[in-house]
Design a protein that fits this description.
- The structure holds two protein chains of two kinds.
- By secondary structure, chain A is mainly alpha-helical.
- Chain A is built from seven helices and two strands.
- Chain A has helices at residues 26-29, 34-84, 91-120, 129-138, 142-167, 172-201, 223-231; strands spanning 9-11, 14-15.
- In chain A, strand 1 and strand 2 form a beta hairpin.
- In chain A, helix 2 runs antiparallel to helix 3 (91-120).
- In chain B, strands 1-3-2 form a three-stranded antiparallel β-sheet.
- The relative contact order of chain B is 0.23.
- Classes of the chains: A mainly alpha, B alpha+beta.
- Chain A binds chain B through residues 5, 7-8, 10, 16-17, 23-24, 26-27, 30, 32, 34, 37-38, 40-41, 43-44, 47-48, 50-51, 54-55, 117-118, 120-125, 127-131, 201, 205-206, 208-209, 211-214, and chain B through 7-10, 12, 15, 17, 20-21, 24-37, 39-41, 69, 77, 80, 85, 92, 94-102.
Chain lengths: 233, 102
């Protein structure tokens, strides 16, 4: 018993919880062993992995309607191009269309987020402090940063390509082809980017969760350690 | 710049495995729906509720009822409070100390 660590006293003997009657001494009642606690931390990592998978499934389900909407949005840029190119002259109609388009885009994003929440039971994947930390850490990964920039570039650039096609009086079948390929490219890039993100989110719950002082028995490498090594780019 | 490392504090409320796992998930994801927690923990509704109530009684989580799909029933959303976050991070730091044999 003397070897049992006394975690309740960390500041020179002052009890962490001043009411010993209300808060019983767990270290006396429960076997607080290092391996047990290591397992507890591993369980936390396993939970995080499960939730990350759940989030990824929810996100995948969200991506398909997003791709369909992407097709519509890119296709909509083509008539805007026609208007700007002087093929259709209706300034007020054009402004109104832009306004409706902006409102629609925001509404769609909100709707998709709600759908994600409903499906996964998670507010957002950036909601928690740890996941925000992961998202900051993710930027240190060159692959993640590249896919993120590519997603943004594709989401901004491809609709403008459709618009440019309209500006030069391009025909609708080609505009539809641009929209189809464009939405497919955005879909694939988003899927790639989110897969990388969720892989990082499922990495060890806590930085340094792999305690260096404990040497695992041969063949029982902690999943945390394995994940940690994989994601520290 | 202040250190991110929390002060190690063993917390016997959080120490229970289910409650530790609940806090771990909430720390990562912020707000979670009751069924997401229950499914991940692989426990019954009653068990999950009991542990959530304990955490809520200690001010570590807040439980919010919101209208569910179809507005026929209410679903519970769980969020970790600042106190809960501090307690959890301190507890994890204490566990790491135990593991390190300090």
């Amino acid at each position: 018993m003397n070897d049992t660590p006394q975690p309740r006293r960390t500041d020179g003997g002052t009890p962490l919880h001043p009411e010993p009657e209300e808060r019983h001494d767990v270290s006396r009642d429960l076997p607080i062993d290092a391996l047990g606690q290591l397992q507890a931390l591993r369980d936390l990592d396993a939970d995080r992995l499960n939730l990350a998978q759940r989030g990824q499934r929810g996100h995948t389900a969200m991506l398909l309607p997003f791709a369909v909407l992407g097709f519509i949005v890119i296709m909509l840029y083509w008539p805007f191009g026609l208007m700007f190119g002087g093929y259709i002259e209706m300034t007020w109609t054009m402004l109104f269309a832009f306004l409706v388009f902006a409102i629609l885009s925001i509404a769609v994003m909100l709707l998709l987020m709600q759908r994600y929440q409903r499906r996964t039971g998670m507010a957002t994947y950036f909601g928690g402090r740890a996941s925000r930390k992961v998202s900051m850490r993710a930027w240190r990964s060159r692959t993640y940063a590249t896919t993120y920039v590519l997603v943004i570039a594709a989401e901004i650039g491809i609709p403008w390509l459709a618009m440019a096609w309209g500006y030069h009086g391009g025909t609708w079948p080609v505009a539809a082809l641009i929209a189809l390929i464009g939405s497919l490219v955005i879909y694939l890039l988003l899927r790639w980017n989110m897969r990388l993100f969720f892989r990082m989110l499922s990495s060890p719950a806590f930085d340094g969760a792999n305690p260096p002082a404990v040497t695992p028995s041969p063949g029982s490498g902690s999943p945390s350690a394995r994940e940690g090594g994989r994601h520290d780019e | 710049m202040t250190s991110d490392a929390p002060e190690p504090k063993f917390d016997d409320v959080i120490h229970a495995p289910i409650r530790l796992r609940i806090c771990g998930m909430l720390e990562a994801y912020g707000t979670l729906r009751f069924d997401a927690l229950r499914d991940t923990l692989n426990v019954s509704d009653a068990t999950c509720s009991k542990h959530l109530k304990t955490l809520a009684d200690h001010g570590y989580v807040t439980l919010t009822k919101k209208t569910g799909e179809g507005r026929r029933y209410k679903v519970t959303w769980v969020q970790l409070t600042d106190d809960g976050l501090r307690a959890f991070q301190g507890h994890v730091a204490a566990l790491k100390r135990i593991i390190a044999g300090e």
